[in-house]
Q: What sequence folds into this?
């Protein structure tokens, strides 16, 4: 079969349907400053991959080619669950390409546009996994230099993958490389460290600053600095202090806010000493604030050892997995005939039982086993169940968190919030009312949940035309109003109160004044 892939690429050309090396390009899924990204199938291994092809305008420039190759070298040196893995680097004619792990999901920037700032457990999970990737890179002597939400990918299972090491460089002795020149932007102004802006030598602490800016964006919904020009933003990184995160998100634990602002210190020596230290603090906060729900299968930091030991254990584990899979396949083949015979006999027995029991009009024996599997699969821990629920966004998904992890109080309460809102949206008002009342009864120790519950009770009562109950819910919400931090609930409450303010008389004026203090009428 003749390979019809061109050896050169014209400007703007789409290679979908063509073949490069062992990779059949299926469709173009994105592009960056230097490369086009395609979803492809690696034919020999029958797996989906992402293939980055260097744009034609850079294919003759040795500096860009070196930078493109540097991305592959930097990422290939890092084997980690939270780093996009490199499979192959190649060239076909004038086409330079990198085949890498295909991450099905969205980058953090797009995720934030869709969902807004996440709840605390969700935010901590994203931060922990990103910090783990930076710890791996820092221990390998690699500085990413372009940490930003666009380079943090999130899968449907909530796994974080750090991508795009195109600006990375090595900082270990005899490995230093310099790829900076006129026309190449090293980093992104919104997330650059002060030393990066000034063109000074960089080490892992520059990535920590960019990580801090990204965390601020994640928690506040916007970066700490913005402006009309790249220069204007860069100057703010040098001179300005970010608005206190506590003022933007008063619901966040103060130690988390202090950690983020520590990452944003102007001087590198004033930031945390390493990404590993940041990760350790984030995990401590996760245990204290969210009930210790970090996945049990992750090894403790002290057990990670040095990078070489980790890579050796990873290789050994992968080899063991392959051997176990081979043995399991042999065992399945050996048992197939016997299993078919047993299945036939079991079907006969079950049919007889069903017929016999039907005479007595009772529930069929083993009916539970015959029912279809639940729509929302059970995950190995509450964090993964929570992530799945955020992706699905259905009442069934939120119920799965409540039903399968009842002892995880923090997540159960937050899942009840989301479930109540979903029921409200679907006009399942009786169920919504029950959930809101449960949350309203959380007591003084959970003022935020109580405020959320009373706000929800008001919305349900309005929709059901229960005027007296709506007024009572508002009266109980008033002393807790400053504790209402849930963004979606605040929007719903604000919209309903503004609609009904005139009919409420003095109470309406009071609530409208408070709402105007929170957000402008058109905000």
A:
């Amino acid at each position: 079969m003749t390979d019809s892939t061109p050896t050169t690429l014209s400007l703007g050309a789409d290679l979908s349907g063509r073949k490069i090396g062992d990779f059949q390009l299926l469709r173009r899924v994105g592009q960056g400053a230097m490369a086009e990204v395609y979803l492809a199938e690696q034919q020999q291994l029958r797996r989906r991959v992402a293939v980055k092809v260097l744009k034609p305008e850079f294919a003759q420039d040795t500096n860009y080619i070196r930078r493109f190759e540097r991305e592959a070298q930097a990422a290939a040196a890092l084997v980690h669950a939270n780093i996009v893995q490199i499979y192959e680097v190649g060239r076909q004619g004038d086409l330079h390409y990198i085949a890498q792990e295909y991450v099905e999901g969205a980058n953090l920037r797009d995720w934030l546009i869709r969902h807004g700032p996440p709840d605390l457990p969700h935010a901590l999970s994203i931060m922990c996994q990103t910090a783990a990737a930076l710890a791996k890179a820092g221990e390998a002597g690699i500085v990413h230099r372009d940490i930003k939400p666009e380079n943090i990918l999130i899968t449907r299972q909530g796994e974080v993958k750090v991508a795009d090491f195109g600006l990375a460089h090595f900082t270990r002795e005899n490995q230093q490389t310099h790829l900076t020149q006129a026309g190449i932007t090293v980093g992104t102004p919104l997330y650059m460290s002060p030393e990066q802006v000034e063109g000074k030598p960089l080490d892992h602490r520059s990535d920590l600053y960019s990580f801090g800016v990204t965390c601020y964006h994640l928690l506040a919904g916007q970066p700490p600095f913005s402006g009309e020009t790249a220069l204007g933003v860069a100057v703010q990184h040098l001179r300005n202090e970010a608005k206190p995160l506590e003022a933007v998100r008063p619901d966040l634990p103060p130690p988390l806010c202090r950690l983020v602002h520590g990452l944003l210190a102007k001087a590198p020596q004033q930031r945390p000493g390493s990404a590993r230290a940041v990760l350790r603090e984030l995990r401590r906060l996760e245990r204290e604030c969210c009930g210790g729900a970090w996945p049990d299968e992750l090894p403790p930091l002290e057990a990670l050892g040095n990078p070489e030991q980790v890579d050796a254990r990873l290789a050994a584990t992968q080899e063991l997995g392959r051997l176990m899979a081979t043995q399991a396949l042999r065992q399945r083949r050996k048992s197939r005939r016997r299993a078919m015979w047993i299945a036939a006999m079991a079907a006969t027995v079950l049919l007889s039982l069903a017929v016999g029991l039907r005479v007595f009009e009772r529930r069929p024996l083993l009916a539970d086993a015959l029912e279809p599997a639940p729509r929302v699969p059970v995950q190995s821990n509450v964090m993964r169940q929570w992530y799945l629920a955020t992706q699905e966004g259905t009442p069934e998904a939120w119920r799965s968190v409540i039903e399968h992890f009842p002892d995880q109080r923090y997540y159960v309460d937050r899942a009840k919030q989301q479930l109540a809102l979903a029921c409200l949206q679907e006009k399942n008002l009786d169920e919504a009312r029950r959930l809101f009342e449960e949350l309203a009864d959380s007591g003084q120790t959970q003022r935020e949940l109580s405020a959320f519950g009373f706000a929800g009770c008001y919305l349900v009562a309005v929709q059901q035309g229960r005027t007296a109950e709506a007024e009572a819910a508002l009266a109980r919400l008033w002393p807790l109003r400053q504790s209402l931090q849930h963004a979606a609930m605040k929007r719903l409450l604000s919209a309903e109160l503004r609609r009904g303010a005139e009919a409420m008389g003095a109470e309406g004026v009071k609530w409208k004044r408070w709402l105007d203090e929170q957000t402008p009428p058109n905000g």
